[in-house]
Amino acid sequence: MDIQHAPRGLGTALAFGVLAIVGGALYLIAVRGEALFVDLAALSGMLFCF
Amino acid sequence: MPDTPTASPVRRPVWMIILAAAAIAAIGMGIRQAMGLYLKPMTETLGLGREAFAMSVAVANIVWGVVAPFNGAISDSYGTGRVAVSGAIAMTVGLLVMYAARTETDLLIAGVLLGIGIAGCGVNAMVGAVARAVSPEKRTAAIASIGMGSGVGILIALPYTHYAMSALGWQNSLLLLSATSALLLLLAWPVSGKPQVPRTDSAPQSLADALREASRTPSFWLLNAGFFVCGFHVVFYGTHLPAYVADQGLAASVAVIALTVVGLGNLAGTWLAGQWGRVLPKRYGLMLIYSGRAVVFLGFLFLPITATTVVVLSGLLGLLWLSTVPLTSGLVATFFGPRWMTMLYGIVFLSHQVGSFLGAWLGGYLFDLTKSYDAMWWISVALGVFSALVHWPIREEQVVRAPSAAPA
Fold first, then answer.
1. Residues of chain A with a CB closer than 8 angstroms to some CB in chain B
2. Which of A14, A27, A37, A38 should we substitute to test contact with B (largest number of B Cβ atoms within 10 Å)?
3. Dmax of chain B from CA atoms?
4. Which of A50, B123, B147, B235 shows the greatest Cβ crowding within 10 Å of its Cβ?
């Protein structure tokens, strides 16, 4: 048994899975990015600047 | 025999160990990244001060840095599985405390638990498990895989959590995050198992001996100084970019695109750093990264600031973002071997967290003082040059130990 490398099918499936998840995240950023940014921006000003 | 003990007495496939470590880092770092989204709903719904939430997040970051070396010692002595399990439990419970929070004390308790959680399930907790599983020449590339997992987690956590919050409500979304962090318990199995001490000509090294050896190794201190700068740069940029973009009169979407480009560039940069470490001296890679950052920060001072320049400079910075992790942790393993690597890298990481705190705090302080980020850009340039220079004299070789009088 090759313990160094993942089975070929698993590697391919994993690559597609990660690409789909990242693609979904990029889609969400494209359609909801500004709302997300507004919610995050409140924190960045407050986090360490008490 | 190379200085590579097996990851555990029960030899598991290397790819499984790397995959599990990368998945743990993705979930752990992603959940940590998403916490910022809860400031607004939690403070508004519970009527708590924003300072309390900000303090909770700051406490989580400090606890993360302080706990990392201790977790590292446990990981190196008893296996990474124990650290991952304790981290997963702390994170799951911490998220449930956030879900049920009513007072500022509840938020602080959640911050402490989340800090312990990320210390057990972040990149720094996983480096030892992976470093012990692979041969020295593949070590940096393998650690880069954890960094890429972490990069994916950071990139996807914010949009998905934001979506979950609007679909389920912020409280129920915390239950979803808590259930996700509970998955870490399953992922801990492949990285578990007590590390075997390698058979070498040297006497087995105790924890105290390892600390003494590291404290007497100038290259280790130079590495600490360099990684301090890494924390300073990335947290200053990540925290203050939105304010900087608004200050320049650019649309909010520019900051969103810029931070996304940083995340995508980070994936490519981390992979490239892993490949660099396989064939080229790691310290030269770090010198290149820190010099490159200094050049990028000069761009913010001397280029006309438009949406295009901000996005392009962010993309370049993304390539130089967490690409420091595989090279820095790889150097720790080069100096001292993998025996106490997680603990020693935890010390280097503590230096990173101190830099992170200063980067975020000083950015706000100097902006309030001067109404400009120029001073911070200049400090970032100077620190980039400083960090590049401190890596130059690093001796990229294993520390010589006295041979044992009576080898086992």
1. 1-6, 14, 18, 21-22, 24-26, 28-29, 32-50
2. A37
3. 71
4. B147
| Contact status, residue B191 vs residue B128, Cβ threshold 8 Å | no
Contact status, residue B39 vs residue B48, Cβ threshold 8 Å? no
Q: How many Å apart are CA B5 and CA A39, to the nearest integer?
A: 46
Are the beta carbons of B240 and B373 closer than 8 angstroms?
yes
pLDDT of residue B160: 92
pLDDT digits (tens, 9 = 90+) for B325-348: 999 999 999 999 888 999 999 999
Query: Do B207-391 and B14-187 have the same topology in CATH?
Result: yes
Domain ranges of chain B: 14-187, 207-391
Domain B14-187 of CATH type 3.40.190.10: no
> Which residue from B24, B21, B45, B62 is spatially nearest to B174, judged by alpha carbons?
B45
pLDDT of residue A16: 92
Share of chain B above pLDDT 90, in %: 61
Q: Do B239 and A24 touch (CB under 8 A)?
A: no
